[in-house]
Amino acid sequence: MNILTKYNKVTGLALLFAFSLITFISCDEDLVYPDQSKLPPATYDTSNWTISDYSSQEDQGGEGDTGRAADIIDGNTSTFWHTCWSGCTPVPPHFITVDMKKENEVHGFFLVQRQSLSRNLESIEIQVSQDGSTWSSAGTFNLEKIAAQQELVLSEPNSFRYYKMIVNSVFDGSDNAALAELVPYIAYN
């Protein structure tokens, strides 16, 4: 390597640094330092999460290829969890426990009711835990009977590994319940 090659590399780095500096010192600060209050909440990747416990699920074919507890974290609003009803009788209280495999900071949950609006949840409690044994309430939420996504905001951000959804009541008053999605999110504001 001769002195000219060294000079060109140093000059190139200096120019790269100068260009980067110009890029980061921008008149439009939203491009460089976004206003976090303008960012939407982001859900976590649920692909490696598991259901660690549940009270009941329809796994006898009554709902076809859906009805399992794991359907509430599959990212597909066309699938749903349903309490057992084919050859069994569901007994409240119904619950599903999700293991996120690691602690996450959570600001709230996005919930989607079963799209047919049958057996929709009216009221739920969400409990959280670090170890899956000791639980604390993150809140009780009254829901709407709508197919659109609903946002359940926690009173304060919380970090935990497990969350448990407990059904308090369903709109039709039956012992059966159904839910399409329940996934935590982190907010940036």
From TrEMBL:
SUPFAM superfamilies: Galactose-binding domain-like (SSF49785). Residues 1-28 form the signal peptide. The keyword Signal applies. Residues 32-187 form the F5/8 type C domain. It holds the Pfam family F5_F8_type_C. Keywords: Signal. The keyword Ubl conjugation does not apply. This is Carbohydrate binding module (CBM32).
